[in-house]
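Example protein
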Amino acid sequence: MTPASELRTGMCLRLGPDIYKILAAEFKVGTAKLPSSMHVRLRNLRTGTQTEQRFHPEARVENISVETVNMEYSYSDGDSLYFMHPETFDTISIPQRLVGPFERFLESGNHLRIEFVGEEPIDALVPPTVEAVIAATGAPLHGNTDSAPKSATLANGLEVQVPQFIKTGDHVKIDTATGKYLERIK
């Protein structure tokens, strides 16, 4: 059991039958009329819903130890994604909702960090950016339109808007949350 005043972003805890991950934690100093409290924004790891909770600083909550494993992506069957454990070579199924829109960047052989409570996968740690290769794009426009973006197709089939100087074969950095171009790498 952990005092609520020690809760930090990224920790997992059990409230009732459910397991939650702390998305944000903030200590609020009390005033003459209101006592001090710990405000936390939580995500239910089974349903994906978010909620906010307020705890008295001395209240005790059940902190859960989480194991993080770097697993290799194998394939998807629509609702589930299958990853191979690097040491035991067991194939583990995780729900697609844990990965969310990042699934479009997964290719066989890619690695992703998966968090487990015991044997149950509870979360996927999606990187904020990925490196991708431009599979096809048009020729650049010249003149006063150099700042206008053009359409490009990545190797995974995703279409993005890129600057005029990007050409086929370039490596670019893409924001995984929005799918937008960030910068050219090579």
